């Protein structure tokens, strides 16, 4: 049985590192998207967009190590976290920060084009309240990300403020104009499967049982994630690395998910969105 966590962070510097991956695989987890945190989290000082390349290479190297030394298969996803972009604006001003972000996007594009990474993420808008100027700059950068995603035919994992139906519709309009809805994933999504299907994007839902039960009321067109951050100061946040496999198996035992459903969520959709073959 293939079980995929669509959004997990592994941090050997601040967390338990590969032991978290071993926890994931010990309960049946097989594949996961290894998502970039920030340059700071890899010990990289940023003064230019090219500096981000060092942190992307760190994550790619970590993915290779995971794939060599554990039973799980990881896929690196590299981006520019919205909070990181916010800090760039505070440090350098909006104009220079935007130039740095575009340079970072160029570094991302190179690595995806070379087959070293499998998507852009997490990118988008801060999840906390910010001035309109920050939101506008974040949207401006997101448009550039969507254009690159469409050109490369690669997925984007979006980090945003809390979403409701109106926010999804707004996002859908932006994605339709600049990107490819079929390559857009709303990370940390509410279990609003129907509206996501309507606008063409995919929700990636925190795999608490109540969330997945709610999602299943509207269909099976969703991904599952933990958003595990692997930080010893916040152990088990957002939810622990065992959560996706355990919730999947629990709902199978209850008859909520069939084997066909599990294959659809954890293999078919992942292959379709990311353009990979899971074996």
TrEMBL record:
Transmembrane segments: none annotated. InterPro entries: Metal_Hydrolase, TatD-like, UCP004961. GO terms for molecular function: hydrolase activity, acting on ester bonds. Pfam families: TatD_DNase (PF01026). PANTHER family: METAL-DEPENDENT HYDROLASE (PTHR42206:SF1), METAL-DEPENDENT HYDROLASE-RELATED (PTHR42206). This is TatD related DNase. It comes from Candidatus Methanofastidiosum methylothiophilum.
């Amino acid at each position: 049985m293939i079980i995929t966590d669509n959004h997990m962070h592994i941090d050997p510097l601040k967390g338990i590192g590969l032991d978290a991956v071993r926890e994931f695989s010990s309960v049946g987890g097989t594949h996961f998207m290894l998502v970039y945190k920030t340059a700071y989290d890899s010990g990289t000082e940023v003064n230019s967009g090219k500096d981000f390349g060092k942190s992307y290479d760190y994550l790619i190297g970590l993915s290779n190590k995971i794939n060599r030394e554990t039973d799980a298969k990881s896929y690196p996803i590299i981006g520019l976290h919205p909070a990181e972009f916010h800090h760039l604006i505070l440090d350098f001003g909006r104009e220079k920060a935007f130039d740095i972000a575009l340079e970072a996007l160029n570094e991302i594009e190179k690595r995806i084009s070379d087959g070293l990474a499998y998507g852009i993420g997490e990118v988008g808008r801060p999840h906390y309240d910010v001035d309109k100027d920050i939101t506008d700059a974040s949207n401006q950068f997101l448009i550039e990300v969507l254009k690159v995603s469409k050109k490369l035919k690669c997925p984007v994992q979006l980090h945003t403020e809390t979403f409701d139906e109106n926010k999804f519709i707004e996002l859908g309009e932006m994605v339709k104009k600049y990107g490819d809805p079929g390559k857009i994933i709303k990370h940390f999504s509410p279990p609003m499967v129907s509206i996501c299907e309507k606008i063409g994007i995919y929700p990636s839902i925190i795999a608490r049982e109540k969330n997945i039960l709610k999602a299943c009321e509207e269909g099976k067109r969703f991904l599952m994630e933990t958003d595990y951050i692997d930080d010893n100061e916040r152990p088990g946040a957002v939810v622990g690395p065992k959560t996706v496999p355990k919730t999947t198996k629990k709902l199978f035992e209850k008859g909520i998910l069939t084997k066909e459903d599990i294959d659809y969520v954890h293999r078919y959709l992942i292959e379709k969105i990311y353009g990979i073959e899971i074996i």
